[in-house]
Structure prediction request, 141 residues.
Amino acid sequence: MAFFMFYKEGKMKNLSVRNIVLAGFFLAVGIVLPFFTMQIPSIGNMLLPMHIPVLICGFVCGWPLGLIVGFILPLLRSMLFTMPPMYPTALAMAFELAAYGAAIWICNLYSWSFYQCNSWNHITADRDSNINYGIRKCAFN
Prediction:
C-alpha cells in the first residue's frame, strides 16, 4: 500500500485497473512457467522462465509494476515451493528481477522511434517515393 502513496493525483495513469490485472497475470505466469520449462532441464536452464514474465510486465505495464512484480516473484515462489532457495538465490533474484522490470521500460521509451519507422506503410510501399520517405524517416528520426 505504501507504494501508491508515492504517486501524485495526476500521475496515476499507469496504475489503471488493466495494468494491475496484467501485472497479476504476469506474476501468475512467472509462478507457473518454471514448472513447464523445467521438465526438460536443458531448455529450462536456457529460457530463464522467471525472467520472461517480468520483462514483458515491465515492457507492457511500465516500470513501477515491473519493479514490483520482479521483486515479489522470486520471494513468493520461494515461499510457496522452496525453489529457488530463499537465501541466497531468491534474495539476489528479487533485486535482479526488480532491476530488469524497471530497466526494460526505459528500453521501451527509446525504441519507440524504431517501431514508428518500421510501420507497415513504409515497408510495403509500392512507389519509390514512399520507400524513400520511409528510409528518410528511419534515418533522421
